[in-house]
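Something for you to look into today, if you have time. Could you write out one complete protein record for me, on any chain you like? The space below this message is yours for that.
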Amino acid sequence: MKYKYPECLMPFIGLGLFIASRAAAPTVASSLAAARPHGRGRCRHCRQSRFWVEMEVVLHEGDAKDWVYKGEGAANLILSYTGSSSSMLGKVLRVKKILKDKGQPTPICMLFSSYEEFMWGKIPGLLDSVKNDSLAQAYATHVMGQHLGASHVDGGVLVRVSKNFLELVENNVLNIRPAWRVNASAIDAEADSALLISDHSLFSGNPRGSSCIAVEIKAKCGFLPSSEYISNKNAIKKQVTRYKMHQHLKFCLGEISKISDYDPLDLFSGSKERVHAAIKSFFSTPQNNFRIFMNGSLVFGGMGGGADSVHPNETVKCLEDLSKVTGLQISDFIELLSEAIFKSGVLCKLLATQKLDDHDIEGAIHLYYNIISQPCLVCRSITDAELLCKYSTLHSLPLDQSQKIVRDFLISATAKDCSLMINFQPRQSGSTDSAYDSVFLGSVNQIYDYKANFIDLDVKPLDKMVHYFKLDQKIVNFYTKNGEVGGDRCDYPKGGGTSDDIKIQLQH
């Protein structure tokens, strides 16, 4: 029988979209919320029906010229649309990548193992989304949206892509990508879909000619762990942030050219003075933690590479350019950003989500072995009787409790690794009505509309738990032995661990 679409969904049909009835998602993709006549609410049809919204188009070879490189992370490459299609303006395409080194752990989860099916199976629609190749979309919407706030999460829309399109895009962006990214990964030309999401460096509906400043912040972990399962030899974790310890290891390995002054505890502190200090530190060492866009174009910060650095002269020029376009001095800009951070409350939600990890990896790794029903290889290496007793308590937990703790750990891992996009647009003089929240900047007597969105909200693979544990030990071992690294590089072996690294191999 032919399905009759409810009236509330007809605007999507008019936009060139089709609705496929699938038991996977309870609402229409949030990226198209502006087209929904109910605004942010949901009518009975939207509540009772489960729909994926997909574009009724396939991106072919001829479309590749309209998509340009915007940035990338470990798992995805981001393309910005530069063509003339009104339905695509203000959108970016998130294309999946594959690692060239098959020995490296997969950065995100695209297929569930049997263990993951049991662990995530209670979340409605998540298992079905794997079959539909829409796991990233479902996880962002139904898992991370629940914790970070649905209004700050954009699940996106799946679009079909041809192999020729992906191969041509790969060739077009090759010389623009950071060299180390090119060496590590490539676009997955075998993928048959990509995720179309709003370009959160722009305001919706104003992709061209608008005066819009956007800031991308990768805040990292904003708290010090206090888990009882952290061993005494790793007690430094309770005093020094993971970010700081990792910075010193990265510097030693030559992965960064300068150790950042950024302290995540400042950004999450709730103190305006400390938040200002955190923002200021980004300007000298943005690395992949801080980027500024003007009307959708990157004007400050790197292309997503960890070794990216900005020369002081570049910082001065960037600030001069920003001042010319916006009329804002650096102090104004910092005040504007910090006000939006405080008023939106997004960092409070992010921190609460990060704190779902209440066992630390040193506790959660044992529960991972509970889930996969394998002897714990970590316990084999421990001689401390008191510590073994604590860990044996973890190994005696029932399976459902082990799954919840590890599930919360992986949700926290996504929150520690995601980015926050905040963008601003000066409100037109005389305008009092706006769909956006706003802040008043007294120094320039101007109201700015703003919006905040989280991006890079992929589910972390269960089998990455071993990688998390080994990396944690590597970082802490290095910092415990070497402390804060000075100006010289060290002889720490690149690409490998120390002789003290615990050797763990997955057994299936």
Summary: Residues 7-199 form a domain with the Phosphorylase Kinase; domain 1 fold (CATH 3.30.200.110).
